[in-house]
Amino acid sequence: MVKAETLSNKNWHSLEVSQVLDLLTTNATKGLLEKEANERLVQFGENVLPEKKKESRLLRFFKHFNDILIYILLIAAVVTAILGHWVDTIVIVIVAVVNACIGYFQENKAEKALEDIKKMLSHTAQIIRDGKRLEIGASHLAIGDLVILHPGDKIPADLRLIKSDNLRIEESALTGESIPSQKNVGAISADTPLGDRNNMAFSTTTVSAGTGMGIVVATGQNTEIGKINRMMSEVKLITTPLLRQTAKFGKSVSFVIIAIAVVVFIFGYFYRHYDTGELLMSVIGLAIAAIPEGLPAILSIILAIGVQNMAKRKAIVRTLPSVETLGSVAVICSDKTGTLTKNEMTVKTLVTGDDKFDVTGTGYSPVGDVVKDNETVDFSAEPVLDSLIGCFYICNEASLGKDDEDNWYIKGDPTEGALITLYEKASVDHHETDRIATIPFDSEYKYMATLVEADDKNIIYIKGAPDRLLDMADKELSLSGEKPFDRKNWEDEITGLAGKGQRVIGGAYKIVAKNKKNLLHEDLHEGVTFLGLAGIIDPPREEAIEAIRQCTEAGITVKMITGDHIETAKSIGLEMGIGDGVKALEGKAIEQMTDEELESAAVEYNIFARTSPEHKLRLVKALQARNIICAMTGDGVNDAPALKKADVGIAMGIKGTEVTKDAAEMVLADDNFSTIAAAVEEGRRVYDNLKKTILFILPTNGAESFLIIASILFGTLMPLTPIQILWVNMVTSVTISLALAFEKLEPDTMKQRPRSPRTPLLNGYFIWRILFVSVLIGGGTLLLNLYLLNNGVSEDIVRTVTIQTIVITQMFHLYNSRSIRQSAFYGDFFGNKAVFVVSGLLILLQLSITYIPFMNEVFGTVRLPLHFWIYPFVFGFIIFIIVEIEKWIMRLIDGKRIKTNKS
């Protein structure tokens, strides 16, 4: 039995195959014995990642009561129950439960949307045990098992390769490399970075070409993906800016409410000699009046509407507060491969001995042209270019296809797929050529050669690493025919293409006799004619370039954090508008930095290359240490820890891994970076509308509190009962204010810098406006009460008129609140139809509470004679005019301040 301490060796890549076989007591041809495999499964456990324990639905529901304002509301419910006011108790509890239900169901809906787009990973493995070839569940793989690999297979565990036949593995999800890794079996240095461990195959990566065999050296949580999983579990989650602000706001309001309630109770008890029960009900009424109990509900509704709007724009949001957080993001840290780029290799440049050519179009779609000086190439005038493209097509094992949804894809190596796409784009003679013999691509030789028939001769076409082809060539082809080979010129061309971040592939040929029927490496040692070069890139998404421009305009910095090579990263970054094409930082430099040094570097640099999962996580932490709200995008497992740590983690929905989606707050259903810009816009709109809602709701609470305090201080009639206060609060919060959630984005919002996380939810102007409108409505209503009482109007009618006055006045104030500073008639006055719909609904509700007998009984209201309705409507219109005048004065002050600052 293998010892546990043996597996603590983290450097399987540094051991020879024979050492690995000895340490794991397995066989390179027969694999493990079945008995030994079962014992190791018991000893080390199944090949699965530990699952996070899910919260029960009941616990998730009760979490929505975890708010200090709701606590005060529930205490009020207990007190009213003790005093025997059961109707008040029931209504208060219903308000709290409805608020919890709104949040709970919206979160479930967002979670279900995510589940619908998840893709399942492969769960089987081809192995050899007891000398027999088997297909088993990947979870039953044991340490030491011999795994067989074929094209298209997903690697089921971490393997030390013992056989590699042109084996190439797509590892971008784990390492960030856009090009498949060529595998071999020789031992390498112990300190080799993860992305360069060419004798290893890692769990969840995919075989793109060739075949191979490997020994299982790590399973489950001990694999590289398992380490990332552990790293994620250790990440300490942070709350969003909105939650921090609302929590602080709730505590402040709660403290003020309790303090005022105590002072008012003492004053009423000792100086006005109220009955204790009556005074308690009044103080409870004060507490309920002051608590914006509808705010958590309307907050959830506004965020939920934001979630639905984002879903329409292909962004699935998992947690409601993340909607608003997007609006305050100052930095977006983006992975390159598959996020900013297509992860579809594309030929962009062709070089012959006579000229250079550009290739239009991106990805595997064969749409585009070969151009020179912006003119489509006439291939009849460019025979060398024709031969070069034909060489790339003939010397190729990939194929191009289209799926059921008309999306183009390739089978085989992505680089070869790019060359096939080039051939389909070019206006060359598309005819099949009969192959006679082939030398497959091999990592030792770094080229592929194909022998084909051609009239009275045969031709060997060669495609591969330029340095190998330069060693073979002794002449080159030009329009004037074959000429002496200028190696220095071609080396300069290769350096130039590499400096642009392009991967360079060379093409060459050799003419042989018609009777030549076999092909050996020795046939390529002399007589080879060099044709030219192709520069290949993983192209940036066109829409991502525009999205980055929009982000920059909105004051958001986009940083590229990739596992790719530094020159490639700088070149792609410059093309996309990230960085200057010169400044970039590599992962090995990050490792040498202290946390303090990294904080400065994280702000200074916008391109980070050859990064590991640990580097990405440290960079996110460094930005957060500078109080920068940051988002992290990615599609690979290597992005997951950073996504989880970021203020907003954004995963790709199509190409993203399961781990990445689970770690993220938002999933892009279309894998389109530009969707992020749309989501940021929606986030800013949500936050603006949230502020407008607060500016609208709180004056209701302020006006009611003012009325009750004044009534106790002056010893007059209590203007509203607790249950009437609840009605006013909820009908204004959940009915009228809901219309503000549908307000459109105000002009220039996306041209403003992101707000600081330290920006308070209520600034000085907001506090002024809330107090100003509260006193206007509360004071005016109090004067109206005194006027009616002095004219002999009954107390029940006065209370009913009071309810109508506060609610109808708030309806008028709704139109004030559609813009914080601008006039109510600024812009598209009729653009938000919801304000007119809720105004009509509100009038129906107010008529119901006034004229339906059941409502009269529950809420203590009475039927109003028609002439009493003039008071609330005239008063509401007056308040509307006064607030519009106040906004006009504030705009004048703003204008003078701007002029002063400019001068």
UniProtKB/TrEMBL annotation:
SUPFAM superfamilies: Calcium ATPase, transduction domain A, Calcium ATPase, transmembrane domain M, HAD-like, Metal cation-transporting ATPase, ATP-binding domain N. PROSITE patterns: ATPASE_E1_E2 (PS00154). Its main location: membrane. Pfam families: Cation_ATPase (PF13246), Cation_ATPase_C (PF00689), Cation_ATPase_N (PF00690), E1-E2_ATPase (PF00122). Keywords: ATP-binding, Cell membrane, Membrane, Nucleotide-binding, Translocase, Transmembrane, Transmembrane helix. The chain crosses the membrane at residues 61-83, 89-105, 253-271, 283-305, 694-717, 723-742, 762-785, 797-815, 835-854, 866-883. The keyword Phosphoprotein does not apply. It is found in: Cell membrane. Residues 11-85 form the Cation-transporting P-type ATPase N-terminal domain. It is a multi-pass membrane protein. NCBIfam families: ATPase_P-type (TIGR01494). Belongs to the cation transport ATPase (P-type) (TC 3.A.3) family. Type IIA subfamily. This is Cation-transporting P-type ATPase. It comes from Dysgonomonas termitidis.
